[in-house]
């Protein structure tokens, strides 16, 4: 038993060193998670603990301030990474379906869908540009902007030759498409590649 | 050690023949094969039997140790992906809130489980929670259906809820998990299943030894509108302007689908992490148990071996003393 105790004591530090701190996912101290759900659960199924809900894993957002804040807080997330997490910037320009939309602190609360295009983040004098495939942007009243995209690459990682080839390929596919599905797919390919093209040239 | 064994034998034979300390009684109850009861309750098994058991237990220990290493390396691979995907569902919850207690007519429970076993109790926990949610949301005019991901939940739920199962998807982890695969999956589910609210049940990965069962709720656009109009948590949704030529309804539709695929992606990754972590700890305790068993068997083996040596000695000595005497 003592042997096992020493083994157990020796094991956790190694695991703690290997485990990473979960920076994007801290259990919020206030369990504002639905109390009605917990109560209803406990009434019907008293033996099992109720499951947790996402609210208990999220940092709560600050309320709308009375005056316009000086900086915009941006969360730019992709399925594979959080490209920007609560970064304070001056402005972002997002490629919404209606065209390039600039977002400054104090922007009215908006939900916008994105089309393939260039996203630029302006912080002081530096501008970072990404090409996003598509996604959504939520602008909240408290000057928080959430940009969720499926794919985003920095512009310098795009290859102009491949873009031209892709554009030609999809134009060919569109002309030879028979069913609506094929036409739609070819059209999407053309849209993305022409946006890539204009991103590289423009 | 031999003297102690001899003494034991002496004690056994004493009631039969008193004056002689060591006896020539040949009917030794310590037969070379199979079990026997000594006066103190010591059982003598053949060494061959014990040796076979020791070999198989040692093999099991090696296998479970190897499985633990494999699970640890797989965990490391998936853990980075899962942590990176954690930012994905937070904007949706920030915008649309989290309403697990929403009152809807048609709820669909998406249970995420593993395909392979030997991973501790996580699949049973998921199934228990799914059944709990089913119970919670049952009533007049309300119905709950299941969509099952993974063999283990399928085996458990098919037994008593077969008629409530809409869709079963297995072999999810044949290729490494990526967003495209999960979005195709989400698309399939959205196409084939009617729902007012989707409740995704999975095990969220906190650490290698801690997995928290979690339920994420995704509402259909109509319910979102209904909740927004009625005020309460989603009441602020009306304040949001909608860019673009599309109506609010269309945007909400796209939003709900996107939210579902993002939440599913995170849920599937977290469950994969939890599965590997649970397998690690299950295999670890199993190899520890095998080690304990091996220790006990080794002691039994040594006792048996020494008892048989003692028997030989006794036979030789008694034979020799019979010749002399």
Automatic annotation (TrEMBL), chain A:
Localization: Membrane
Name of the protein this chain belongs to: ATP synthase F1 complex delta/epsilon subunit N-terminal domain-containing protein
Swiss-Prot/TrEMBL keywords: Ion transport, Membrane, Transport
InterPro entries assigned to the protein according to its UniProt record, in alphabetical order: ATP_synth_F1_dsu/esu, ATP_synth_F1_dsu/esu_N, ATPsynth_dsu/esu_N
Major location (coarse): membrane
Residue ranges of every copy of the ATP synthase F1 complex delta/epsilon subunit N-terminal domain listed in the record: 72-143
UniProt record similarity statement: Belongs to the ATPase epsilon chain family.
Gene3D superfamilies: ATP synthase delta/epsilon subunit, C-terminal domain, F0F1 ATP synthase delta/epsilon subunit, N-terminal
Keyword Ion transport: yes
Automatic annotation (TrEMBL), chain B:
Cellular localization per UniProt: Membrane
Broad class of where this protein is predominantly found: membrane
Membrane topology, as annotated: Peripheral membrane protein
Domain of life: Eukaryota
Keywords: ATP synthesis, CF(1), Hydrogen ion transport, Ion transport, Membrane, Transport
InterPro entries, A to Z: ATP_synth_F1_ATPase_gsu, ATP_synth_F1_gsu, ATP_synth_F1_gsu_CS
Pfam families recorded: ATP-synt (PF00231)
Keyword Membrane assigned: yes
PANTHER family associated with the record: ATP SYNTHASE GAMMA CHAIN, ATP SYNTHASE SUBUNIT GAMMA, MITOCHONDRIAL
Record family assignment: Belongs to the ATPase gamma chain family.
HAMAP family linked: ATP_synth_gamma_bact (MF_00815)
The protein's name: F-ATPase gamma subunit
Biological source species: Hibiscus sabdariffa (roselle)
